[in-house]
Amino acid sequence: MIRITEREFSHLIHYIKNTYGIDLIKKKTLVEGRLGNVISDKGFDSFSAYFDHVYSDQSGKEATFLIDRLTTNHTYFMRESMHYEYLQKTVLPYLEEVAEDKDLRIWSAGCSSGEEPYTTAMILQEYFKQDFMKWDAKILATDISVSVLNMARQGIYSGASLKNLPDAWKKKYFHQEDQEVYRIANRIKDEVIFRSFNLMNKRFPFKKKFHIIFCRNVMIYFDRQTKLDLIDRFYNQVEWGGYLFIGHSESIPKEDTKFKYIMPAIYRKI
After folding, report:
1. For residue 201, what is the DSSP state?
2. Do residues 105 and 209 lie in contact, with contact meaning Cβ atoms separated by under 8 Å?
3. Domain coordinates in residue numbering, the chain
């Protein structure tokens, strides 16, 4: 396996941080382990030679491959279930009253392989029931990893990924293809729009603001200033009265945000 020098590692962490916001300064072993053999298999004899190839690739495919290798995308349905309980019991009743023209906009930022936005779509259908079709409920799901977005669009999951879902939901919202393979039903898949998007973009291109933003277990990779800058952009992108959900392993200092702390990992623009 090819080893990475201190100079090469410094070069890489600055590139990844400036481009994607991800801080790899304490991840040298991870970087070497995930890229060492890959670089050799691609025919390069050093990290520097491989990086030169990545930077010169105008298609962006090599940069996409690099970030796919370096990021971890482990999730499952109904992860951090307290969020979904709060969504169903508190947030949706509020939005049902205030959302104009039954227009509901939700953003799953850092959606990984799709479990989060699909869970959200199921919650919406469970809450609104027969009235769901009266709502123009849009769920945008974004990630920088092309490979996990492709997985999300396919909507095929293992039984382990569905372990926290009620059995009735598995029957209602999935097609079981064999003992351990489930495919998400089109009635759920059609409610989610998947797009590649880099959260480090200084301006978000969305025409309308969101009522809810999920950005869970993404900012653990960011340093303090990168995280605070992103939180500010989220604040500007949320409707008044709207909510931001972050991961339970993450936190936002109360003095550093205009969001109001509601409860662990839940914030509101009020």
Report:
1. -
2. yes
3. 6-70, 81-155+186-268
146: which 2 tokens? 């092309």
3-state secondary structure of 202: coil
Instruction: Give the CATH class of 81-155+186-268.
Output: alpha beta
| Three-class DSSP category at 223 | coil
Give me the CATH code for the 6-70 domain, please: 1.10.155
Cβ count near 93 (within 10 Å): 10
Return the DSSP state at 163. T
DSSP H helices, the chain, are 6-20, 28-41, 47-56, 61-70, 81-86, 92-98, 115-128, 146-154, 167-173, 186-189, 224-237
Buried b (16+ CB within 10 A) or exposed e, 56-70: eeeeeebbbbbbeeb
User: At 67, is the pLDDT very low, low, confident or very high (cuts 50, 70, 90)?
Assistant: confident
Reported as a single tens digit per residue, the pLDDT across 204-243 is 999 999 999 999 988 888 888 999 999 999 999 999 999 9
HEC assignment per residue over 92-141:
HHHHHHHCHHHEEEEEEECCCCCHHHHHHHHHHHHHHHHHHHHCEEEEEE
